[in-house]
Specification:
The protein is mainly beta. Helices cover 3% and strands 63% of the residues. It contains 1 helix and 14 strands; from the N terminus they run βαβββββββββββββ. The chain has a 6-stranded antiparallel barrel.
Length: 207
């Protein structure tokens, strides 16, 4: 669990093993059912303010959707937070019956010194309709003059593949608070098409 439990303080370790949650989900009317052995593990040390969680859920049914597995690994202390998430979802066969590989989605977040770094990637590797890509963003968190949370984010140059077409993302930025969001120069293009996003989204008529 990546926590120093030798440091003096209140150390806690917990483990939850799940074999089949159908009965509990039915009893509590939960929308989620876990059909395969899964586990949730964690540890913390309150003296050094450290926490770690490792979650592996398998054979998940969420209403009518099926998810093969979800893995969540999180670590935090007084100075930083790291969260790694991976989702694997089965896909339907192609129209001709050819099996497709699973859809894989990964989200990694790191927060340190009021800077949040995010990476979202996905890949479905379908035989005829392939979709994959990666989006990276770095955001600075602060307070404005009204003590509202203010976020200033910069998008990184990345690419997205959809079918046989490759789309390129050329940087750009997003900034604002809960009242108003500014979008500056987000540019998405391929060989023959392009889309540029600029403007202000807010509650005022002129936005």
């Amino acid at each position: 669990t990546n926590i120093d439990t030798t440091a003096t303080g209140n150390n806690y370790i917990f483990t939850c093993d799940i074999k089949d949650s159908r009965f509990v989900s039915h009893l509590l009317k939960l929308p989620v059912v876990i059909n395969s052995p899964s586990s949730i593990k964690g540890a913390c040390n309150d003296r050094i303010g450290a926490l770690a969680v490792e979650t592996k859920l398998n054979g998940i049914e969420l209403k009518k959707s099926k998810i093969k597995s979800i893995e969540i690994n999180g670590r935090s202390n007084n100075d930083a937070l790291t969260l790694e998430t991976r989702i694997v979802k089965p896909t339907k066969p192609s129209s001709d019956g050819t099996p497709n590989k699973d859809l894989e989605i990964e989200l990694n977040c790191n927060l340190a010194d009021d800077i949040l770094k995010n990476t979202l990637s996905w890949n479905n590797n379908k035989t005829k309709r392939q979709t994959k890509g990666k989006l990276r963003m770095e955001a600075m968190l602060s307070r404005d003059a009204d003590e509202e949370l203010f976020v200033k984010a910069l998008m990184q140059n990345d690419s997205i593949v959809h079918n046989d077409s490759v789309w390129y993302l050329s940087g750009g930025g997003i900034s604002g608070n809960r009242k108003k969001i500014n979008i500056d120069g987000i540019y998405l293009y391929n060989d023959s098409q392009h889309l540029r996003l600029d403007g202000i989204a807010g509650k005022e008529k002129e936005d």
